[in-house]
Write a structure and sequence with these properties.
43 strands, five-stranded antiparallel β-sheet, alpha+beta, 748 residues, single chain, Rossmann fold
Length: 748
Amino acid sequence: MMCRRGWVVCLLALIMAALLPGAGGAQDLPAPVAGNEPTAQMTIERLYSLPSIIGNAPTGAVWSPDSRRVAFLWNAQGWNFRNVWVAGTTTGSATKLVTDFEQRGERIDPGTDVHALRAQARADVDSGVSSVIWYPDSEKLLAVRSGEFYRVDPLGAPHGVMGTAVRALEIRGGRPSFSPTGSHLAFVRRGDIWLAPVADGEIGEAERLTSIAGAGRGVMRYSWSPDGGSLAVQTRDGSGVAAVLIPDYLGEATTVNEVPRPFPGDEPGRTHLSVISATTGAAVALTVSDDDRDSIFSFQWSADSRRVLVDTSDLYVKDRRILSIDAATGAATTLYREQEPDNVMAYWAVAWAPDGGVYFISDRDDFYHLYHLAPGETVPVAMTAGEWAVERFATTPEGLFVVANTPHPSERQIFRVGAPGAEPVRVSGESGTHSPTYSPDGRWAAVIFSSDAQPPELYLNSLDGSDEIRVTQSTKVSDFDEYEWVTPEYVTFPSHVDGVEIHARLLLPPDFNSGRQYPAIIGSIYSGALRNQWGGRNAHPVWGLDQILLQRGYVVLNIDIRGSWGHGRAFRRKLKQDYGGVDTEDIYSGVKYLIGTGYVDEKRIGLWGSSYGGLMTAMSLFDRPGVFAAGVAGAPATNVWHALTGEMRVMGRPQDNPDAYADSSAFTHAAGLEDPLMIIHGMRDRIVLFKDSVQLLENLMLLGKGHLLELVALPNSPHGWDTRELYQTRYAFRKLVDHFDRYLEPGR
């Protein structure tokens, strides 16, 4: 199963759109390395322009209630703007475009008109339809585009936004959901839940169900009860949260935005869970905790609509409770509790089991595994076991399924789980990352699959292994195949501190010769970097940047540092109160590994990462001068006192652990800088404040080391400085490559 053995659905006729030329601007750096040239020369300009050479990844897959069809969001030509598509599981079902919303604004060549270029950049990040759901009758769809709702007939042909296939409704909002009975549509508008009656497919006038919204207050998420009579609603009250001021320099005049942004130790905001009647609006508060600062990770209705299952813990994830709460009275019963003072992460999940007990994911026995707690029991039974980890699970009418990182830690494979102690049966085939959405009848999975060699595509796979349907072809085949795409090998090496086995992805230049001495770059460094999927850890679009670096003659190493998921409890918990400590030692172990290969020049090793990876980059250069010839830190979290409150899971409160905060904040180590460091930072960053990078520059200037830091400011960028407008991505990546070329000299 999932062997990619052929295309039952072929879309090539829709795919082969002509490529538009990229925007004008600075020229890409010439590749300095000669050797076995690929068919076509990779450039930052081509790899990071639209339409994308790797296509637009399908997303938002949702099954019809009758399990016959899947709706999903996609753009077949490689633009960011997505429409709604539908694919079926029956013989002869064709994949079909069912909406044809058009990107607002005419696409023209802006030339050198800065205002036109800015308008086009804004248009290019328009993702089109944001979500789609099925009507309960499995015959119609409801699509959301820019907060407006549209009824879609998947059997008709799209004739425009106001045509026969897409009918505009007098509704604005987000996160729509039909009641299980089909009598009402719920959605969130301006922080409150609204309900609209549904009759014969027609949606009536909506009325507000809740009156929660206000300054810092609103609905976070909600869920219909199976009988359709109530909704479980989680709300957040951030009215007491402190704000930070973030200046904006791009308008006609400089403005200042006040952004709710608590620091560790500050008031984090409160959260509440209640059951609200869909007919009367009457609310019952559910007793989740004595402390409403506690985190609620998930909640789920019981099949009889009488109880709500809640997975919760304290703010520091040291005290987890799984609760069964009476929907009528709000009274809670604790089903299971874990108190782990050394815990630092919460990769948890929980769901009702068919017998009335619960399934949940826990690392109580070292690796994250699936457990079953039967009704009335207090000791859970392990459903899976071994030196591998369960990432997620799902219960279906056809059985219990998990996604796990076995047979190799980089994998995400699908397994059917049987009785406790029985070996799970693998139902996915090809090496890579499988992200399934299961059909209501449990017979099929809509799977987004990618690997080191294949960008994401959508497949429909029967879970008995009898059939596979390839739904999308996103890459521009005629262009994609012109390039030589290097794939990694997976290596291990011991920690130089404690001998623990460290896993990594190693990429070698396309003309690799083991008798040469190459420069090397470690990065993008971050936890969870070991992943057999397109781009590795794909939170940043480094799939192309890595290839550019390889083409230029660099060896590239991505390391799964301490704190990463999937290697056991001790591997994660070693990070406790030690950002920039044991994790940077793992990086240094990677340096020693590279030098030990014999083909890496120890004088030409660079390091880069973003956010937390930026902290590790800065800390490594500050604490180990001379080890790295150069570093690049993107949006670096150099001041842990200014982190998000969630980082208290690792660091605790600064009031209780001031020395740990000082040791883990890179700016306190800045006097050690001896090697060139570049910082790339978005000035609109609300996660890691741009102010912190400015302050670090000021400190280095005072220390007489300002000449070693180059600050690259991105005026229009949030925290994800390379994930939005592509002109910023191209600019920042050129800066990064130029910095490493200057100091690592790949051409010699």
